[in-house]
Amino acid sequence: MSEYEGLVRAVEQGDFTGTQNLVNALLNQGKSPDEIIRGGIVLALDIVGKRFSAGECYIPEMLVAARASQRGLDVLTPLLVKTGFKPRGTVVIGTVRGDLHDIGKNIVAMMLKGAGFHVVDLGFDVGPEKFVNALNTENAQILAMSCLLTTTMISMQETIDALREAGLYGKVKVMIGGPPTTDDFAKEIGADFRGKDAYEGVEQAKRFVA
Ligand code: B12
Predict the structure, then answer these.
(1) Confidence of residue 67 (pLDDT cuts 50, 70, 90)
(2) Which atom from ligand 1 is nearest to the alpha carbon of 70?
(3) What is the pLDDT of residues 150-194, one digit of tens each?
């Protein structure tokens, strides 16, 4: 039996208290926050997604699992986010227009903060104008976009087109992520990088500002 099985089950079942208690218990056993995210939280959401695809559960179940996972991440965030030092660079991040999925984006934002970046998180359902405004106001070096729906991938293209119009394309590095995205798609829309997970995103962000 995996040591993360209890946590996976708690997230799947939308058990908020159980999720927080099990995250704390795993921390006390010496597990690192990213081990807990990968081994428990992400895995649980993956299982829920597969059940949804198979018609074995519905949106309310996905929603409570998402909320439970957020409770677990709330425990881990302060452990990952360092404060009080000069940031490596500024990243503007958001989930693109039409898309409400923000758990993966929140993990990427949290990991970037943990790696010493100043992160401006615009939330979800973010349109091209809002991304462009934030990049200008914050004088950011990196734009990070997330999407989970195949139907909202087009919004990544629209945002990059808006960067071109605003004269930011080529000045700001663009990275994208989320399950429907691929390296070929990134190339096609003119993004600099596509990350399969938060860890790849952070490593690339470090290379961008090196
Ligand atoms: C939770 C969930 C929801 C919740 C979202 C709550 C929230 N606050 O996010 C709710 C219930 C609201 C929801 C709604 C819907 N959902 Co939904 N949802 C999911 C579910 C189960 C989990 C998503 C998730 O959080 N995964 C965990 C995170 C950690 O993973 P992740 O986002 O992939 O992020 C990681 C990487 O991709 C990467 N990454 C992500 N972004 C970025 C960005 C950068 C820059 C980088 C480098 C990396 C990176 O790093 C992350 C961490 O390592 C998925 C199934 C699945 N397995 O993905 C379906 C899923 C995404 N949903 C789906 C659907 C269809 C819907 C709805 C349309 C359902 C409906 N009929 O209404 C609506 C759409 C609402 C909208 N307009 O957005 C489909 C999408 C199909 C598709 N390909 O288009 C999925 C795949 C389910 C399925 N199997 O059919 N959903």
Answers:
(1) very high
(2) 8
(3) 999 999 999 999 999 999 999 999 999 999 999 999 999 999 999
Q: What angle do CA 196, 127, 83 make, to 5 degrees?
A: 60
For ligand 1, pick from 111, 148, 207 the residue to mutate: most ligand atoms within 8 Å of CB.
Answer: 148
Q: Whose CA is nearest to atom 30 of ligand 1?
A: 104
For the entire predicted model, the pTM comes to 0.91
**CA-based nearest residue to 113, from 174, 202, 41, 38:** 202
To 10 degrees, what angle do helices 154-165 and 128-138 make?
Answer: 50
Measured CA to CA, the distance from residue 31 to residue 161 in angstroms comes to 43
Q: Which residue ranges have their beta carbon within 6 Å of ligand 1?
A: 42, 45-46, 48-49, 52-53, 59, 62-63, 66, 98-105, 107-108, 144, 146, 148-150, 175-180, 195, 197-198, 200-201
Q: How far apart are CA 83 and CA 22, in angstroms?
A: 26
**Over 90: is that where the pLDDT of 113 sits?**
no
Q: Helices (DSSP H) in 15-153: which residue ranges?
A: 16-28, 33-36, 43-53, 59-80, 103-114, 128-138
Place of tokens 């908020």: 16
